[in-house]
Write a structure and sequence with these properties.
Layout (H helix, E strand, L loop, with lengths): L1 E5 L10 H7 L6 E7 L1 E2 L9 E2 L3 E3 L2 E6 L1 E2 L8 E2 L3 H8 L3 E4 L6 H12 L5 E6 L11 H10 L3 E4 L2 H9 L5 E4 L16 H6 L7 E8 L6 H9 L6 E8 L3 H11 L5 E4 L7 H5 L4 E4 L21 H8 L4 E4 L4 H5 L4 E3 L4 H13 L1 H18 L2 H16 L1
Parallel strand pairs: 1-2, 1-9, 2-6, 9-10, 10-11, 11-12, 13-14, 13-16, 14-15, 16-17, 17-18
Antiparallel strand pairs: 3-4, 5-6, 7-8
């Protein structure tokens, strides 16, 4: 089976691991990834990424000239895509830029014009209802009409695409898996000592952006009610809300328990997660369902949850978006924005370490079974074969 995947996401080699595994699952599988030659993360000129050709047996990454260097929806590829498709002749074409992608329409059209007879797929994270104006509505209609299968990152996205009229096959799974070679249980005594964490401290962790929709003020208020316990709050990330959080911690009287860590390479994040006794993702939905507007946000997946689970760290998450489906029964859920309920979940883990350890084991089992790159590669191959039958 020959598989061609196109996305700007794979300019980062770490993001390619699932597809690299896919190429080596069985003899006869070849994976070619098409990436833009130049990309500007965040649209910043000085941060232009120039991609390079890479080949490892039946797996390769091929940079192709591109139009639009910072907009996923407007991304499309140059004329050298045509000889690549003619030579490779894929059985599967998957574009990971969403339902309204010009690059996806381009691949569909070339598939038809070149007589490749490949199955057309796209991936999307989008999980909020939306309306479209002409000509974007026409573009999405064309794409959906010629789609053989969709990989969608969450259950809400599945429902929305059904509402948009798509009746074909879909598979719910994240775009990227967890690297179990890195994210696994590994004690970090030296790092704990460096950060001033003692054996008696219960470490409540957060990894992500310090922004309002991540619910960090709710977590701060929940922790404020537990000042009679020995805990520390480890925050890994950066964002606009840092000063607000620091001021809130001072007001609530526990700023001396905060541990701030910024600018950590992703390959080192596992070290900090392994310091945590629980990782909390208290995300809060900003989408207003009553007004039926697409403005807003809700958690699309929560990748840090599966990284913590793979490290055997028990997780607590709000019920925003996909979080409850990711955690399932292998962690604790609370109603988003509910301080008392979040405090109760943290208390359960502080007061009952054996329960916390059992949750950690359950989360680990779930991560290994469903969310490693190997598990996702096998699931994706099963989906491809289902479409081909």
């Amino acid at each position: 089976m020959k598989i061609l995947v196109a996305s700007h996401s794979y300019i980062v080699d770490l993001n390619c691991e699932k597809l690299r595994v896919l190429a080596n699952l069985e003899p006869g599988i070849e994976v070619t990834i098409v990436v833009p030659k130049r990309w500007k993360p965040g649209g910043v000129m000085k941060d232009v990424v120039k991609t390079r050709y890479r080949e490892e047996g039946s797996f390769r990454v091929v940079p192709v000239s591109n139009f639009s260097q910072n907009n996923q929806g407007l991304l499309s590829f140059g004329a050298e895509l045509i000889p690549l498709l003619r030579t490779f002749r894929p059985d599967i074409i998957q574009v990971e830029q969403g339902s309204k992608s010009i690059a996806y329409a381009e691949m569909i059209s070339l598939n038809r014009l070149l007589g490749l007879k490949a199955k057309n797929l796209f991936f999307t994270w989008w999980n909020l209802p939306y309306t479209l104006k002409f000509p974007v509505s026409l573009l999405e209609s064309y794409n959906l009409r010629h789609t053989d299968g969709i990989v969608v990152g969450n259950r809400d996205g599945d429902q929305i695409l059904r509402q948009r009229g798509y009746q074909g096959k879909m598979r719910i799974m994240p775009q990227l898996g967890v690297d179990h070679d890195l994210f696994r249980p590994q004690p970090q005594p030296e790092l704990a000592a460096q950060l001033g964490i003692s054996d008696n401290d219960f470490v409540v962790g957060f990894v992500g952006r310090f922004v309002p929709e991540k619910g960090l003020l709710t977590l701060a208020k929940a922790l404020a009610g537990l000042k009679d316990r020995s805990w520390k709050w480890l925050l890994l990330g950066r964002g606009e809300q840092k000063e607000t959080l620091l001021a809130e911690a001072k007001t609530l009287g526990f700023d001396d328990r905060l541990i701030w860590v910024e600018s950590v390479p992703h390959a080192d994040v596992y070290r900090y997660i392994n310091l945590m006794h629980t990782l909390v993702l208290p995300s809060e939905t900003t989408y207003q369902f009553k007004t039926l507007t697409s403005a807003g946000w809700k958690e699309q997946f929560g990748h840090v949850l599966i990284e913590a689970m793979a490290c055997q760290v028990p997780v607590i998450g709000s019920d925003s978006g996909e979080i409850p489906n990711v955690i399932d029964n292998a962690g604790l859920i609370f109603p988003e924005g509910n301080v008392d309920q979040l405090r109760d979940r943290i208390s359960q883990l502080i007061d009952n370490r054996s329960f916390a350890e059992e949750l950690g084991r359950q989360g680990y089992g779930r991560a290994i079974a469903h969310y490693t790159n190997h598990a996702l590669a096998k699931e994706l191959l099963t989906f491809y074969r289902d479409l081909s039958n």
